[in-house]
């Protein structure tokens, strides 16, 4: 039951109509993180349509997508794969104890040169 | 006409030069730019999920402040610009976000996206003009070959950002020409530097940043310029520095002869 609601929630707050996808693969063709993804952007769109949310929530791609919006720019069908990926990532980090990075991880990762913008961005993406 | 200026956190800390040179230049250009009072962090990344409201509120506060001035919000950091412009678009076109954000903020008058969000480069193009800018240059950067690094945030998604052609932009090349230097067009100028992923997966950002710098260098650039502190960090600290990276405001200040004041 829970999964059913989760799927419809993720679809709704992704804010994009994945049923319009024609499987052309242009989004993945343009994606700069393609080689660092186990499930590719066009597959995200297909798998969410099929309802395979569990598989997507375990994918590595939700952590390697750069939110660069190149896939959105290239899609001829007005689908936004980046928004699907972000919605799935949100579904993961909105769970209890599921943050990818925590405040206590930060000191070990920073040095004098890291801009605040990088820390806040990563926190907003990986921590809820 | 006054521009309400939103510097953002990083321009007051790790990217002070980007901010300081920009302010010297607006003075030299005779523009009325005033920093917004009591601004807060914009949130650094635009939250894409349609049900995200609280994470957009500080951007709405900033937008509403500018509305109360001359309705022109000037941005400089590419990330702040992207967040503020996209949240503003939500306030125009997403009734749910608009209603809830207004309910939270309890403003005297409803905010519905009235403010115009203008990036510093757009201000140079649309309010100063390239010919005017050229006329104010005292120290043209003759013979310097500069690659524009656009990255993602200024250009995409182009339906909202409406900054320039997302695949073949020209605004930074036009800027480079106006200050007397030579633009170098290279294929990776609108590719992602690796963004926030560098915190947890530096190898990815290294790869991305080096591809950009190698592409600029192979096409003959002496340096690349950016408007983004995160791109600057990734290109400089993740990349192998085959070419120099500078903020565009630094070379503008040099051309206008105000760099050392
Ligand atoms: S937003 Fe993510 S999925 Fe889309 S092109 Fe960029 S890195 Fe790839
Ligand atoms: S570019 Fe658009 S239509 Fe083509 S596969 Fe990707 S999401 Fe589907």
Written account of the structure:
The complex is a heterodimer of chains A (128) and B (261). In chain A, 55% of the residues lie in helices and 0% in strands. Chain A has helices at residues 2-14, 26-30, 41-50, 53-57, 61-64, 70-74, 81-93, 106-109, 116-126. The model of chain A has no long low-confidence stretch (mean pLDDT 94). Chain B is α/β, with parallel strands linked by helices. Chain B has helices spanning 16-28, 57-68, 78-93, 95-105, 120-128, 130-136, 158-161, 171-178, 202-218, 229-238, 248-256; strands spanning 2-6, 32-35, 72-75, 116-119, 145-148, 182-184, 223-226, 244-247. Chain B has a four-stranded parallel beta sheet, with helices on both faces. Chain B has a four-stranded parallel beta sheet with strand order 6-5-7-8, sandwiched between helices. The longest helix of chain B is centred in the C-terminal third of the chain and has 17 residues, at 202-218. The mean pLDDT of chain B is 97. At the A-B interface, helix 1, helix 6, helix 7 and helix 9 of A face helix 10 of B. The structure holds iron/sulfur cluster (2 copies). Residues 21-27, 42, 45, 74-75, 77, 79, 81 of chain A line the site of one iron/sulfur cluster (SF4). One iron/sulfur cluster binds at residues 30-33, 41, 65-71, 81-82, 85 of chain A.
Summary tags:
heterodimer, A: 128 residues, mainly alpha, Fumarate Reductase Iron-sulfur Protein, Chain B, domain 2, 2 domains, 9 helices, 55% helix, globular, B: 261 residues, alpha/beta, Glutathione S-transferase Yfyf (Class Pi), Chain A, domain 2, 4-stranded parallel sheet, binds iron/sulfur cluster
